[in-house]
Specification:
The protein is built from nine helices and ten strands. The protein is of the alpha/beta class. The strands form two sheets. Strands 4-5-6-7-9-8 form a six-stranded mixed beta sheet. A four-stranded mixed beta sheet has the order 3-2-1-10, with helices on one face. A hairpin with a 2-residue loop joins strand 8 and strand 9. The longest helix is centred in the middle third of the chain and has 17 residues.
Length: 304
Amino acid sequence: MPHPWSASGPLGPCGGRGGALPSLPSLLAVSDLHVGHKENRPIVEGLRPTTDEDWLIVAGDVGEFVRDIEWALTTLKQHFAEVIWLPGNHELWTPPDDPVQLRGEERYRHLVALCRRLGVLTPEDPYPVWESEGGPVAVVPMFLLYDYSFLPGGAANAREGLRMAYDAGVVGTDEMLLHPDPLTSREEWCHARVAETERRLADLDPGLRTVLANHFPLTREPTRILRYPEFALWCGTELTADWHVKYRAAEVVYGHLHIPRTLWQDGVRFTEVSLGYPREWRRRATGPYAPQPILRRAAGRVPR
């Protein structure tokens, strides 16, 4: 019987957000479920909402194999009123032993189609509105990738940064498994995704605040505590450095780093919501982290 992890479970460094079960529905977030690791699967099976009306943002890196991604999202959709998925780099890999050998944009579109069959929202769908205690908020799942602009110290450009990373033995697996087809590079794919997402954000009601959810951090700041600073190259793009201000973020949600914590920038809360690999969550005194509460629903309001 899997343990029923809920938002009242272990919260670790995101302190001040746990305690008693909230009486109002919550917008929750989790990422980096990595269900290819068998120890993570019962945790996913046991994830539970705090109320029947809770929404769950799943901020990427569910797994590498399409069948595992489908299993996890199907499981979560059975428990949460709304599930909102966006891809991490692992979903975009094309492992040689995955029966689904689609690459790049075709793989992403295949996963979007899968989500639509399951009733799971994606970055390609209209942004849903959460009626929070502070007013309506657009929940914005994003797929942006990275462009090697989070440079290590001493690097003048991406080429130098990558050379330094390779010399240090720090190389993202994406270099082997994440293909940008039909585009020629991951940077080009990143820039196309940034441009499309910025167009959609600009079309939002300027009076509407947002929850910006992306697998990779939107700013460089969260990467500054990485053990291997060269890995920041595979962690985001400087093109989004001001989006939390420009697009009126009530909160920014991200994963990828496997360092669950809360930061504040320009008065905006940034929350890293990773579960991570078993070897990581076993080292935590509290064990695996529950989905993190992001916003509560205003009393008497229903989602749009």
